[in-house]
Specification:
Oligomer: single chain
Largest sheet: 8 strands, parallel, barrel
CATH topology of the largest domain: TIM Barrel
Bound molecules: ligand G3I
Number of domains: 2
Strand order of the largest sheet: 1-2-3-4-5-6-8-9
CATH superfamily of the largest domain: Glycosidases
Radius of gyration: 23 Å
Distance between the termini: 37 Å
């Protein structure tokens, strides 16, 4: 772990933040600290409103506390960075890069060659192949050059495949004006400017199977060709904008299908990243507590791919809070892990618990070899895999409360709130199974069957999470 990470972690844990399971005294683990122990990146976009200072302070606090990779919702796109021909605008992107640096985060660049959010002056060259080639090359050289060494990975090409049938998206200005070779060229130009950056092809609906009739199947054929031809492609970004299974009758995507894609890419030495995850419900439907718990399980299933597949390293969510989500435009709602009030949803808990309970394979070097950036290679990660005690992981600072189980009774001791202490019990998949509260800190667990569980305790400002065994 880089010093900046460790320092930032300490600063955050010393700060009182109302975010999820974290607080000042217990120095609880965050999604970020657990992701780093598992050698993966976890992130969320910085919403466009953040750039204009239009978001409440706790948005940013949560963001930097919980995530270690960041991408701009709109601010590094073509129309934002080159609004007029040859006149580049880097102010917002620079702001994010500075923020990432200050908080020890990795930066994704999104996106260089995309048909959408392209300014009109580009579209005007739709019929001029030579000019468009120059425009795209010049854009890449300037933008990638500007952030060379600071943007660790780029979506070089975004959404170039048609949505309706497995073929190129022929309506794209780049495809129409240049032909499919714009893709190969964009990768080569980007690599020439920043040979250390990881270069991705990014698209949606890739969780719908790898057969030749599906988008991912078509993409796989192209990746094979690119690799065979020496085109510098290192990763496929699966946007993974999906809808909750019960409200979308046409839902055909699944975590298993995305996992198949990861396995196919591994054969080509190409990574899979989840780059824009959201799991929405249809707008207008009532979303119950049970629905939100099921949604949490789907978040967890996609996380499992990133944890378990050696060539998968990134889990990035397209937003922080449901309040500032683009999903309304897609007739969907509530697709993120924090609610409108920036309170963590069951999906947050599922992710957190899964990150805590994940047992890395014995051969941990497998994951290490695929994580390119050394910032997440933390010497403590190795120690944590050897820890066989019931505590999931030792805390960085001593907690002001502690818990232990004797028989079927859970005791919480330490500086308890005089009002109430609450416990929540999750199974190892992060599903909530039991919760209760009282002021004494003694809890009867006799209704819970034998097995391993994760318990979260909240008492006043203190939080504690620990794995327990019920015998
Ligand atoms: O910049 C203008 C602003 O000047 C104007 O006042 C305002 C009025 O509505 O619109 C602003 O532009 C909006 C822009 O976001 C910035 O906020 C556009 O109308 C709006 O269409 C645009 O939406 C973005 C969308 O991409 C455009 O395709 C979403 O915020 C953004 O979340 C979304 O992100 C994409 C990824 O890049 C690629 N994958 C799919 C994903 C979701 O569509």
């Amino acid at each position: 772990m880089k010093k900046t990470h460790a320092l930032a972690g300490l600063v955050f844990s010393m700060t009182l933040l109302g975010a999820g399971l974290t607080n000042a005294f217990a120095a609880d683990e965050t999604l970020r600290s657990l992701a780093e122990k598992n050698n993966i990146y976890i992130g969320a976009i910085l919403n466009s409103q953040w750039f204009s200072g239009g978001l409440p302070g706790n948005y940013e606090q949560i963001h930097k506390q919980q995530f270690n990779i960041v991408v701009a919702e709109n601010e590094m796109k073509f129309d934002a960075t080159e609004p007029q021909e040859g006149r580049f605008s880097y102010g917002n992107g620079d702001k994010m890069v500075k923020y990432a640096k200050a908080n020890g985060m990795r930066v994704r660049g999104h996106a260089l060659a995309w048909h959408s959010q392209v300014p009109n002056w580009v579209n005007n060259y739709r019929n001029d192949k030579q000019k468009l080639l120059k425009v795209l090359k010049n854009h890449i050289e300037n933008v990638v050059g500007h952030w060379k060494g600071q943007v660790a990975e780029w979506d070089v090409v975004n959404e170039a495949i048609s949505n309706n049938e497995p073929q190129w998206r022929t309506g794209s200005v780049w495809y129409q004006g240049i032909g499919p070779e714009f893709i190969d060229s964009a990768f080569v130009w980007t690599h020439a400017v920043d040979p250390d950056a990881e270069l991705c092809y990014n698209d949606y609906n890739l969780e719908q199977g790898v057969n030749p009739k599906a988008k991912a199947g078509f993409l796989l054929q192209q990746v094979k060709r690119w690799v065979a031809n020496g085109i510098p492609i290192h990763c496929v970004g699966s946007q993974t904008h999906v809808e909750d299974t019960t409200t979308d009758k046409h839902f055909i995507g699944s975590p298993d299908s995305l996992r198949s894609l990861a396995k196919e890419l591994a054969k080509l030495n190409v990574k899979l990243k989840i780059t824009e995850l959201d799991i929405g419900f249809k707008s207008g439907v009532n979303v119950s507590k049970h629905d939100l718990e099921r949604q949490g399980q789907t978040f967890r299933q996609y996380l499992d791919i990133i944890l378990e597949e050696p060539n998968a390293d990134t889990y990035l969510i397209w937003g922080v809070s449901d309040k500032w989500s683009w999903l309304g435009g897609l007739n969907r709602q509530k697709g993120l892990i924090y609610d409108d009030n920036l309170k963590p949803k069951p999906a947050f808990d599922s992710i957190l618990v899964r990150l805590q309970t994940f047992e890395p394979p014995q051969d941990t070097s497998k994951k290490d070899t695929t994580v390119k950036d050394s910032t997440v290679k933390d010497s403590t990660a190795k120690d944590s895999t050897k820890d066989s005690s019931d505590a999931i992981r030792p805390f960085a600072m001593p907690s002001s409360i502690s818990m232990h189980v004797a028989g079927r009774t859970l005791f919480v001791t330490g500086a308890l709130s005089t009002k109430s202490t609450k416990i929540e019990v999750f199974d190892m998949q992060g599903r909530p199974i039991f919760s209760t509260e009282n002021s004494k800190g003694v809890f009867d667990l006799s209704s819970i069957s034998e097995g391993f569980y994760v318990v979260r305790v909240k008492s006043g400002m203190s939080n504690l999470i620990q794995r327990i065994a019920i015998k």
